[in-house]
Structures are given as structure tokens and as C-alpha cells.
Task: structure prediction
Amino acid sequence: MAMDPRNQQEFVSLLTDHQEVIRSYIISQLPGSPDVRDILQEVNIMLWEKAEEFEIGTNFGAWSCTVAYYKILEHRRKLKMDGKLAFADDLGALLSDESIGRETDDLEEKRTALILCLRKLSSKNRDLLRARYESQKGGMERVAEETGRTKESLRVTLSRLRSVLRRCINGMIDAKGGVA
Result:
């Protein structure tokens, strides 16, 4: 059964948005490993193959990190067979359970803070960010043309807005010890 085009688009968006979370999770389980990029690619392939099993609206970060966990176990089995595994699988599982929860909690906390910080921006700045990041075609050139700006001017403005958002997000998380 093929995936509904809207669900497919949402899935691709979620997969793209969570690349850094998945990569960070893999790194946390295999620190210093030169195989992180390969494992991430294998995880992405597996996620795509299992896309129909994912229920839109549920926690994509936890689901994708669980898939990554099994790919990491597979990688560790290969290392163990080669005599290169440094610690037992049960220690890896313990570390993994803690990391999945922490990574997805951190992501949700940052998303909540981002939403609140975006609301603090002027509607003009929010519209500018939306035009830049929601557009699939034309990118920076199109947005610069539509807003009557040079690409360099737009680049500087967007950089400043990202800095404002980053400071706002970090400030919210630091001040509250997390976003409620």
C-alpha cells in the first residue's frame, strides 16, 4: 500500500528535521566512531522503508532513534565479531534508553521555545523567515527579488534574525531550566 502524498510530504519533512537528532544519538552511542555517517545513511534507508509504519502525529524523534538503536546494535555485533567492541551490549542499551529520552525531550523543549520566540518577532520578520524557509523553489534569490532586497542584505538580515532566535531560545531554556 502506497503512502498518501500528504503523509509522504510530512514524513520527508520530519525525516529532514530530525537528521541532527538522529546523528547526535548515533554519536552518543558510538563516540569517536568513523562509521557514524554510514550508520546514519543506513538508518535513513530503514526509516524510508518503514515509512508506512510511522503514524503521523506521534513522536518521530523517539521512533527514528529506536530504529537507529537497532542499527547501532547491528554495528556493535559486527565489531564484536571482529574483536573490536569495547563494552557489553547491556551497557549500550542502558546508555541508549537514557539518550533517546533526553534527545527527544531536548528537541521538543527547543521547538517549544522556538515557537514562543518566533511570536516575539515582528510580523514582517516572521514573514521574511517563513518566505525563506518554507519555500522549496528559488531560495534566496527568489526571496530577495520578492522583498526588493539584495541577496547580501537578505543574508545579513536572516543571520541577525537567527542570532536573535538562538539567544531567545537559549535564554528561555537557561532561565526556566527548560520550557514548561
Summary: The chain has two domains: 1-105, 121-180. The mean pLDDT is 81. The first helix runs from residue 5 to 17. The two ends are 40 Å apart (CA to CA).
